[in-house]
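Page 37, continued from 36.
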């Protein structure tokens, strides 16, 4: 009996590995090996020709001492803050105000259409609008309004702010959709009981809807943090990190160092640094949300 059971378990494990093996091999080949190679390159001097020459931590020391890297890091943090305040905040407002309205799905369609565009396409469109003498400047001049002479994409940090607004135009819709899904998953009974007790408007949202919306909020904010840390396409399409690299993000710096300057070692160091802060930010945020959820559950249990 025991031998038969052991044989069946072994056969089952072999079958499982037969199915898992190809997928695991692809993940290792496409994901893990390039990461390990990038880590190796970050400790070398390599121009793409010849063989990499080991340089220790020289690339990381150069990053810390490079004022452009500091500017890129600051711009990336501005992107994180802007992405949380604007597309996430407005997406939540759109989802909450349209939830339950007749034809609400059609009301959200105009916000979702920009999400179908690529980041490069959005960057090109807004670059045409915001360039010197572009559509916005011409419209302001025609209406005799101030700002027609403003160099939207040439002055820092104004160029970073307007690029965040462009990215927000694209991202509001999907955030509203995710929040709408979260609102649909909230049980109706607690909300109806709160309304009977006199809660409405801001009080209803603050003390009932917002806590019950926490799982969706965790997902939306987590995705926003990760995506904003990796910002590349819109910046590259609108300013290429200029002028004089004042609007670069870490993603743009990584691309410039690696492919434009052919300094694969320094570019790899930027990539590893960006990966570390992305993973760290994600882990810290998720653990904090889980801790808040556990404390809320303990409080509810004690009250019960």
């Amino acid at each position: 009996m025991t031998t038969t059971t052991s044989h069946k378990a072994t056969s089952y494990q072999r079958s499982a590995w037969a199915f898992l093996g190809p997928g695991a091999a692809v993940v290792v080949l496409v994901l893990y090996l390039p990461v390990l190679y990038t880590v190796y390159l970050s400790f070398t001097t390599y121009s793409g020709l010849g063989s990499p020459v080991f340089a220790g931590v020289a690339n990381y020391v150069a990053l810390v001492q490079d004022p452009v890297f500091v500017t890129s890091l600051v711009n990336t943090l501005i992107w994180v803050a802007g992405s949380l305040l604007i597309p996430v905040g407005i997406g939540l407002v759109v989802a909450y105000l349209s939830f339950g309205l007749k034809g609400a799905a059609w009301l959200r369609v105009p916000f979702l259409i920009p999400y179908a565009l690529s980041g490069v396409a959005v960057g090109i469109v807004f670059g045409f609008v915001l360039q010197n003498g572009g559509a916005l400047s011409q419209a302001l001049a025609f209406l005799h309004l101030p700002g027609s002479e403003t160099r939207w994409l040439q002055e820092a940090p104004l160029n970073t702010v307007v690029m965040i607004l462009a990215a927000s135009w694209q991202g509001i819709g999907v955030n509203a959709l995710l929040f709408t899904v979260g609102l649909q998953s909230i049980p109706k009974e607690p909300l109806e009981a709160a309304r009977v007790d006199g809660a409405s408007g801001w009080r209803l949202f603050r003390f009932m809807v917002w806590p019950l919306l926490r799982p969706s909020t965790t997902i939306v904010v987590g995705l926003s943090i990760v995506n904003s840390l990796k910002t590349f396409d819109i910046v590259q399409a609108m300013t290429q990190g200029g002028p004089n690299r004042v609007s670069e993000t870490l993603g743009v710096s990584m691309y410039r160092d690696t492919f434009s300057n052919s300094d694969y070692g320094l570019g790899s160091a930027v990539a590893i640094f960006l990966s570390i802060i992305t993973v760290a930010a994600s882990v810290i945020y998720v653990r904090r949300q889980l801790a808040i959820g556990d404390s809320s559950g303990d409080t509810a249990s004690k009250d019960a």
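The chain is about 75% helix and 0% strand. Flag for discussion at group meeting. The two ends are 50 Å apart (CA to CA).
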